[in-house]
Structure formats: structure tokens, C-alpha cells
From TrEMBL:
<feature type="domain" description="Neurotransmitter-gated ion-channel ligand-binding">
    <location>
        <begin position="24"/>
        <end position="153"/>
    </location>
</feature>
<keyword id="KW-0732">Signal</keyword>
<keyword id="KW-1133">Transmembrane helix</keyword>
<dbReference type="InterPro" id="IPR038050">
    <property type="entry name" value="Neuro_actylchol_rec"/>
</dbReference>
<dbReference type="GO" id="GO:0004888">
    <property type="term" value="F:transmembrane signaling receptor activity"/>
</dbReference>
<feature type="transmembrane region" description="Helical">
    <location>
        <begin position="244"/>
        <end position="262"/>
    </location>
</feature>
<feature type="transmembrane region" description="Helical">
    <location>
        <begin position="268"/>
        <end position="293"/>
    </location>
</feature>
<dbReference type="GO" id="GO:0005230">
    <property type="term" value="F:extracellular ligand-gated monoatomic ion channel activity"/>
</dbReference>
<keyword id="KW-0812">Transmembrane</keyword>
<feature type="domain" description="Neurotransmitter-gated ion-channel transmembrane">
    <location>
        <begin position="221"/>
        <end position="307"/>
    </location>
</feature>
<dbReference type="Pfam" id="PF02932">
    <property type="entry name" value="Neur_chan_memb"/>
</dbReference>
<dbReference type="GO" id="GO:0016020">
    <property type="term" value="C:membrane"/>
</dbReference>
<dbReference type="InterPro" id="IPR006201">
    <property type="entry name" value="Neur_channel"/>
</dbReference>
<dbReference type="InterPro" id="IPR036719">
    <property type="entry name" value="Neuro-gated_channel_TM_sf"/>
</dbReference>
<feature type="transmembrane region" description="Helical">
    <location>
        <begin position="313"/>
        <end position="332"/>
    </location>
</feature>
<keyword id="KW-0472">Membrane</keyword>
<dbReference type="Pfam" id="PF02931">
    <property type="entry name" value="Neur_chan_LBD"/>
</dbReference>
Length: 333
């Protein structure tokens, strides 16, 4: 008798496991995310805030119902009401979370359509902040950055597996971000291993963006080019003291310029392209000041011939030296 009861318990337990995992394997959950708007990109914090729309579709036979003649082909349910019905039927919702989300997210719309055959269509529109740890500013401001929105299943892939919902994946045309332009996007589904050693499905929507260069050309490169030309033009002056004064003024201007640019980026452990450009300008400007100081010394010592030779060499070698130095610095980045 005891053995019969034990066998019955084992059969019931195995029935619960099969019901949990599905007789035909894990339940397929189709998922799609569209990026509707980029609210902002914080380069120092290495994150971005965005408005997105998440859509989830799967079939749950326990929620099937008999359609009413003349009624709409589906029923609209709230998320809370759907959870109550699932709990009453003893089945679980294919829960997921945004794996790279920071803080909370603000829901603006949420709803569920339930069809007679148990087909569930879930939609969610919200605003959230997402981590972007893959930022690499070495080519700034000519860099392209990668951004991701990742949704990861709360339940192992023995219960639910993700598949793409292609018709609801992509990036909107009016993102509202003026500094960046999105030029590519793609979505993938893969499996990640959790701390418990089990596999979990993960959906990732990634998009690539680069900067609008006109802003940086007008605000950085044109002013820097003017500074270089001003520094070089001092060679036309015969008064070496005025050359030194102008060179020191240009150097102070560069220092202020450097501090202004530093406010836009985090404190990095490597140089960016614009850092190399500014550093090269620092070096050439400092070299011009040193040359003019030496010329002033030789003028005071009545060594006019040596001064004239050095002056001519510096004037001719200014641009080639700068271009060679810049090219070397950029190659070493």
C-alpha cells in the first residue's frame, strides 16, 4: 500500500514537471522592440535614455476561450487581470527584464490582447535609461558608438525561448537626437548562462550612431586652424618680444579651449583624436615661443646671422613639422 502511494506521488510530480516544461518543449515567445525616441545621451555617465515599444507574443492554451458571436475578435485585458487568470490556471507568465536598464522605467502605455485560441499579444511603451558600457572615444569626434536595449528572460530556456518578431523591430525615423545620427540597427536572440548554471534567452536590439561633424568642424577644428595660422603668422614680425607675447596669449587660449572640451567627455585612460589634435597644437605653439625666445637672445647677443637662419628654418618647417607630428600621434592612438 505504501509503495502504491509513493508511486502515485512520483507520477503526480512528474506530471507537474512536464506541465511546467511543456509537452512539446519550451514555449516560444516572439519578442520585438522598436526605438521610438532618443531622449538623451550622457557620454560622461556612459548611458542613454530612450522611449521604446516592447511587444511580446506567445500562445497559452490555458487562456483560450469560446468566442462570442458578434463580439470583437479579441479581448483587451490589463496586465494585472492577466496575471490573475494565469495564477488561477496554474501557469506562469514569460517574465523578462531589461538587462541593461538603470533605475526605474516610466510606463506610458501597457495592454494585452487575448485571442480565442490563447494567443497573447502584450505591448508596453515606456521611457528608461540604459547602460552603454561599450563606448570607445578614441576616434572622437569621428567615432561611431554602439547602443543596446536588452531584454532577458526571468525563466530558463527549458520553459521559454525567445524568437524575433521582425515586423516590430527597428528604429524610428524621428528620434529627436540632434548630435547623433543612427545609420545601422540589428536584433539578435541568444542564450546567456545565469548564476545557477541554467540558460536564459536574451533579446538584443543594437544600433550604431555617429556624430554630426559640422558642429565639431565649426566649434573645434576651424578655431584651432585659425590659432595655428596666427601662431605661424608671427614669423612675419621682426619684433621678437611681440612674437613671444602673441605666442603666450595663444597658449593660454588653448588651455581654456581644452578645459571647455573636457566637459563633454568622461575622464578617460586614453587619448582621443581631438586630444592628439590639441596636444599637437600645444607642442607647436610652445615650440614657436621657445624659438622666439632663442631668437631674442641671439638678437641681444648680436648674433644676427644665426638668428636669421633659425627664423627661416622655423618658418619653413612649421607646417611640415606639425603635420608629421599629428600623423604620428593619430597612428599611435
Amino acid at each position: 500500500m505504501h509503495r502504491l502511494l509513493l508511486l502515485l506521488c512520483l507520477l503526480l510530480l512528474s506530471g507537474w514537471v512536464v506541465a511546467g516544461e511543456g509537452a512539446d518543449g519550451p514555449t516560444v515567445v516572439r519578442i520585438g522592440v522598436t526605438l521610438d525616441q532618443i531622449v538623451g545621451i550622457d557620454q560622461k555617465a556612459e548611458n542613454f535614455s530612450a522611449v521604446y515599444t516592447l511587444r511580446v507574443r506567445y500562445r497559452e492554451p490555458a487562456l483560450a476561450y469560446e468566442p462570442t458571436p458578434g463580439a470583437p475578435p479579441f479581448r483587451m485585458l490589463t496586465f494585472a487581470k492577466t496575471m490573475e487568470r494565469l495564477q488561477a490556471q496554474g501557469v506562469v507568465w514569460p517574465g523578462m527584464f531589461l538587462a541593461n536598464q538603470q533605475g526605474r522605467h516610466d510606463l506610458s502605455r501597457q495592454g494585452i490582447r487575448l485571442y480565442p485560441d490563447g494567443e497573447v499579444h502584450y505591448i508596453e511603451r515606456a521611457t528608461a535609461v540604459f547602460q552603454a558600457p561599450d563606448f570607445d572615444f578614441r576616434d572622437f569626434p569621428f567615432d561611431s558608438q554602439s547602443f543596446y536595449i536588452r531584454a532577458e528572460s526571468l525563466l530558463p530556456d527549458s520553459l521559454f525561448v525567445f524568437e524575433l518578431l521582425p515586423e516590430h523591430i527597428g528604429v524610428g525615423d524621428q528620434l529627436g537626437e540632434e548630435e547623433w545620427q543612427v545609420f545601422d540597427s540589428a536584433a539578435v536572440v541568444d542564450t546567456v548562462t545565469g548564476a545557477d548554471g541554467l540558460g536564459y534567452s536574451r533579446f538584443s536590439l543594437g544600433f550604431q550612431a555617429n556624430r554630426h561633424l559640422l558642429y565639431y568642424v565649426v566649434r573645434i577644428f576651424v578655431p584651432m586652424l585659425i590659432i595655428l595660422v596666427v601662431s605661424w603668422s608671427t614669423f612675419r614680425l621682426k619684433d621678437y618680444m611681440k612674437r613671444i607675447d602673441i605666442g603666450i596669449t595663444v597658449l593660454l587660449l588653448l588651455i581654456a579651449f581644452n578645459f571647455t572640451l573636457g566637459n563633454d567627455l568622461p575622464r578617460l585612460g586614453y587619448l582621443t583624436a581631438v586630444d592628439a589634435f590639441i596636444a599637437g597644437t600645444f607642442v607647436i605653439t610652445g615650440a614657436v615661443i621657445l624659438v622666439n625666445v632663442q631668437l631674442r637672445i641671439w638678437q641681444h647677443q648680436k648674433r644676427e646671422r644665426e638668428a636669421e637662419r633659425l627664423d627661416r628654418l622655423a618658418r619653413i618647417g612649421y607646417w611640415p613639422a606639425y603635420l608629421v607630428g599629428m600623423s604620428t600621434a593619430l597612428l599611435l592612438l
